[in-house]
Every structure is written in structure tokens, then in C-alpha cells.
Amino acid sequence: MAQCCILGAGNWATAFARVLADAGHDVTLVARRPVIADGVNQRHHNPSYLSDIELGPTVGATTDPVRGLAGADLVVLALPAQHLRGYLRHLATLPVWRDATAPVLSLVKGIETGTDMRMSEVIEQVGGVPTARIAVLSGPNLAREIAERQPSLSVVAAREAAVGELVQQWCLTPSFRAYTLDDVVGVEIAGAAKNVIALAVGMGEGLGYGHNALASLITRGLHQVAALGEAMGGRRETFAGLAGLGDLVATCMSPLSRNRTFGERLGRGLGVEEAARESRGVAEGVATSRAVRDLARAYEVDMPIVSGVVEVLEGRTSPAALVPVLMQREPKPEW
């Protein structure tokens, strides 16, 4: 049995708390709001996220990261990508964080705007965590389905094989399985960039396009994301696996996906601010889209779907104009 600390208390944090509890571990969620901590401790439910999910007696919560981190064998980061730096700056001032030797597992799927850094890079730079202690988990990770104990597969990527294998064993349950990889770059780029493709697919859905169009967007989107990941040092085969194709399909096609539903609202004619007001939770692809576009430019990778999504988000074109522009691109070999 391990002592696990999850920094964050949203949908994915709550679902992963149940995974770790099902695997036989004690889990502490570190929440921002006292009402969440009280609900978890007193009623074994998160009152704000996945409130119908029973978390059980081995899941507790606190608003104090010092208390949550004390004695932790595994630290899990489950925060919005654009909030991670600020949170880590605070953690880096705490002796309980600075003196820790536990593996740090990132559940965060995004690229930091302004720096274009992957989440593991932010964890290392700002949090002071050595690369050897960092792992990232990705794949088709729709929180609701995982919390309901529906069968789910994921990938744990770590440069240190022993860390990846340890995390893999710690989150092993009858309904949740993780494979290991050492391609941290590929897994993080796949997990971040697929959110942008899901925005485009959602726009197509909102516009009323059929399955042929949506399947084409997904397929070409995967090709473009893989090209970027490979240019940055990732392995092409990573994008054909759970962290690539698996996550992309789930995020693009499920109404549980915040990015897909955000894009769908844009396709129905809502503005970005209106779509954000209707959304519950963070659609990471909105902020990440600009960072992915910047990385594509820096690595000279052609990503027209991402560029088109950014133009929509910045108000320079409409969803209705995006697909015709993509259809007018010069014919060329697929590969």
C-alpha cells in the first residue's frame, strides 16, 4: 500500500483518486476549496466534480498541500496546464516538496502558453523535480468513464524505466491498465495537441458535417500531430498507440470531451466567450492551440488544422470558413 497525494480535485483528479483507491492505496486530494475537502472527508463524495461517484474511506482531502504531501510515496499533479507554473512556484517554497524523493506523475495535458513548454519541462524547471522522478500518464482518459470503472487503458511514460514500472503497478486495477513507454516527448505532445484537433472536429459536428468529414479531420489531425512530435524528438509509433490514436479518437468523438463540446458550440455559432461560459471545466485546447501553432512554426511542421483553429479562436475566421479552406489545399501524396 502506498500513500498517494493528488494535487488538484477536479474531474480527472477525482477519477484517478478512485483508481488509486481501487488499487489498494491511501489517497489524499489537495483541493483549493474547503467545501470539496469537507465533502470528501465527511461524505466520501466530491461535491463539485463527479459528485455521484463514491470515493470510499481510503480517499481523504485537505486544502493544505503540506499535509497532503507529508509521507507521500507518489505525488500526482492534476491541475489545468496554464495554472501549473504558479502552483509549482508555491510548492517549491515548501520543505516537504523540496526534500521529497517520491515519483511525480503528471496527468496534465497541455503546452504552456508564452514558453511553449511541455508539462514535464515546467515540473522540472519550476518545481525543481529531477527528470528521473517524473512520469506522465496519457491515453483515452475520459474521467467520467474511468470513475465509473469502465475498462480503460493508458500509457505511463518515464525516462527512468523503474519509475514508469512503479507507477504502472500502483495504478493497476481490474478496470484500469497502463502500459509503459520511455517516449515522454511523444506522449506529452500527443496529449496536448489532440485537444486542438478535437476543437476542429467539434466545430465540424456543430456545423452538421457527416462522419466522412469528421473521420478525415481526425486522420489528418493525427498525421500533423505525429509530424510535430517526431520533429521534437518523439517516436512515430507513439502516435499510433494509446497516447496518440486512442486519446485522439476518445477526445474527438465523445460528448464527455470538453474540447469536442467547446468546438461544437463554436460550430453552432457561439463566440469564444459564450462557449466558455457554457462550459463546465477547462477546455485545454483553447489555450494550448496557440502554443502548438508556435511549436509547429519553430520546428517547420505544417499543421493547417491547428492554424485554422487558432484563426477561429482569435476571431479572424469562422468555423464555417475553416473546412472549405482545408479542402482547397494543394493535392499531394498522403505520405
TrEMBL record:
<feature type="binding site">
    <location>
        <position position="282"/>
    </location>
    <ligand>
        <name>NADPH</name>
    </ligand>
</feature>
<dbReference type="GO" id="GO:0008654">
    <property type="term" value="P:phospholipid biosynthetic process"/>
</dbReference>
<keyword id="KW-0443">Lipid metabolism</keyword>
<protein>
    <recommendedName>
        <fullName>Glycerol-3-phosphate dehydrogenase [NAD(P)+]</fullName>
        <ecNumber>1.1.1.94</ecNumber>
    </recommendedName>
</protein>
<dbReference type="InterPro" id="IPR036291">
    <property type="entry name" value="NAD(P)-bd_dom_sf"/>
</dbReference>
<dbReference type="InterPro" id="IPR006109">
    <property type="entry name" value="G3P_DH_NAD-dep_C"/>
</dbReference>
<feature type="domain" description="Glycerol-3-phosphate dehydrogenase NAD-dependent N-terminal">
    <location>
        <begin position="5"/>
        <end position="160"/>
    </location>
</feature>
<feature type="binding site">
    <location>
        <position position="109"/>
    </location>
    <ligand>
        <name>NADPH</name>
    </ligand>
</feature>
<dbReference type="GO" id="GO:0006650">
    <property type="term" value="P:glycerophospholipid metabolic process"/>
</dbReference>
<dbReference type="InterPro" id="IPR011128">
    <property type="entry name" value="G3P_DH_NAD-dep_N"/>
</dbReference>
<feature type="binding site">
    <location>
        <position position="33"/>
    </location>
    <ligand>
        <name>NADPH</name>
    </ligand>
</feature>
<feature type="binding site">
    <location>
        <position position="257"/>
    </location>
    <ligand>
        <name>sn-glycerol 3-phosphate</name>
    </ligand>
</feature>
<dbReference type="GO" id="GO:0051287">
    <property type="term" value="F:NAD binding"/>
</dbReference>
<dbReference type="InterPro" id="IPR006168">
    <property type="entry name" value="G3P_DH_NAD-dep"/>
</dbReference>
<dbReference type="GO" id="GO:0046167">
    <property type="term" value="P:glycerol-3-phosphate biosynthetic process"/>
</dbReference>
<feature type="binding site">
    <location>
        <position position="284"/>
    </location>
    <ligand>
        <name>NADPH</name>
    </ligand>
</feature>
<dbReference type="Pfam" id="PF07479">
    <property type="entry name" value="NAD_Gly3P_dh_C"/>
</dbReference>
<dbReference type="InterPro" id="IPR008927">
    <property type="entry name" value="6-PGluconate_DH-like_C_sf"/>
</dbReference>
<feature type="binding site">
    <location>
        <position position="143"/>
    </location>
    <ligand>
        <name>NAD(+)</name>
    </ligand>
</feature>
<feature type="binding site">
    <location>
        <position position="12"/>
    </location>
    <ligand>
        <name>NADPH</name>
    </ligand>
</feature>
<dbReference type="GO" id="GO:0005975">
    <property type="term" value="P:carbohydrate metabolic process"/>
</dbReference>
<dbReference type="GO" id="GO:0046168">
    <property type="term" value="P:glycerol-3-phosphate catabolic process"/>
</dbReference>
<keyword id="KW-0444">Lipid biosynthesis</keyword>
<dbReference type="Pfam" id="PF01210">
    <property type="entry name" value="NAD_Gly3P_dh_N"/>
</dbReference>
<keyword id="KW-0521">NADP</keyword>
<keyword id="KW-0594">Phospholipid biosynthesis</keyword>
<feature type="active site" description="Proton acceptor">
    <location>
        <position position="194"/>
    </location>
</feature>
<feature type="binding site">
    <location>
        <position position="109"/>
    </location>
    <ligand>
        <name>sn-glycerol 3-phosphate</name>
    </ligand>
</feature>
<comment type="similarity">
    <text>Belongs to the NAD-dependent glycerol-3-phosphate dehydrogenase family.</text>
</comment>
<feature type="binding site">
    <location>
        <position position="109"/>
    </location>
    <ligand>
        <name>substrate</name>
    </ligand>
</feature>
<feature type="binding site">
    <location>
        <position position="32"/>
    </location>
    <ligand>
        <name>NADPH</name>
    </ligand>
</feature>
<keyword id="KW-0963">Cytoplasm</keyword>
<feature type="binding site">
    <location>
        <position position="143"/>
    </location>
    <ligand>
        <name>NADPH</name>
    </ligand>
</feature>
<keyword id="KW-0547">Nucleotide-binding</keyword>
<keyword id="KW-0520">NAD</keyword>
<feature type="binding site">
    <location>
        <position position="258"/>
    </location>
    <ligand>
        <name>NADPH</name>
    </ligand>
</feature>
<feature type="binding site">
    <location>
        <position position="259"/>
    </location>
    <ligand>
        <name>sn-glycerol 3-phosphate</name>
    </ligand>
</feature>
<dbReference type="GO" id="GO:0005829">
    <property type="term" value="C:cytosol"/>
</dbReference>
<dbReference type="GO" id="GO:0141153">
    <property type="term" value="F:glycerol-3-phosphate dehydrogenase (NADP+) activity"/>
</dbReference>
<dbReference type="GO" id="GO:0141152">
    <property type="term" value="F:glycerol-3-phosphate dehydrogenase (NAD+) activity"/>
</dbReference>
<feature type="domain" description="Glycerol-3-phosphate dehydrogenase NAD-dependent C-terminal">
    <location>
        <begin position="183"/>
        <end position="323"/>
    </location>
</feature>
<keyword id="KW-1208">Phospholipid metabolism</keyword>
